[in-house]
Q: What sequence folds into this?
DNA sequence: CTGCTGACTGGTA
DNA sequence: GTACCAGCCAGCA
């Protein structure tokens, strides 16, 4: 069974709109634990198979972060939503970043 | 309980 | 710009 924190994190990630991205820290904050970015990463790693757009969760400063060793797939999914990636960074990160998730 | 392990982050050099 | 580092925290042995 998932812990409360895990469920909250998954719920938050599911609210990220297509074409937008959020950092592990943003998700952690939205889930109520601003400093649990690493824990969020662990949850994303184990979120395979679930109905969760984990590819929209990236690292700080627009860096891609990980994707179970399948970064190419992460880039492809983002590109399919109109999010361009170059030099290992999401372009227009500041504009595409989804903050304050949970407040609408 | 203790002690790792990370899809992390912000600070410093 | 890059590199290293301490702090962080859920999950698991």
A:
């Amino acid at each position: 069974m998932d812990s409360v924190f895990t469920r909250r994190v998954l719920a938050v990630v599911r609210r990220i709109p297509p074409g937008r991205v959020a950092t592990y820290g943003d998700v952690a904050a939205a889930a109520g634990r601003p400093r649990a970015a690493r824990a969020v990463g662990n949850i994303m790693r184990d979120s395979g198979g679930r109905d969760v757009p984990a590819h929209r969760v990236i690292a700080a400063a627009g860096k891609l972060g990980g994707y179970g060793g399948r970064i190419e797939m992460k880039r492809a999914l983002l590109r399919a939503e109109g999010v361009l990636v170059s030099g290992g960074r999401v372009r227009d990160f500041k504009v595409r970043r989804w903050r304050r998730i949970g407040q609408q």
Summary: Residues 23-25, 28, 35-45, 54, 57-61, 64-69, 71, 74 of chain A lie near DNA strand B (CB under 10 Å from a C1'). The mean pLDDT of chain A is 92.
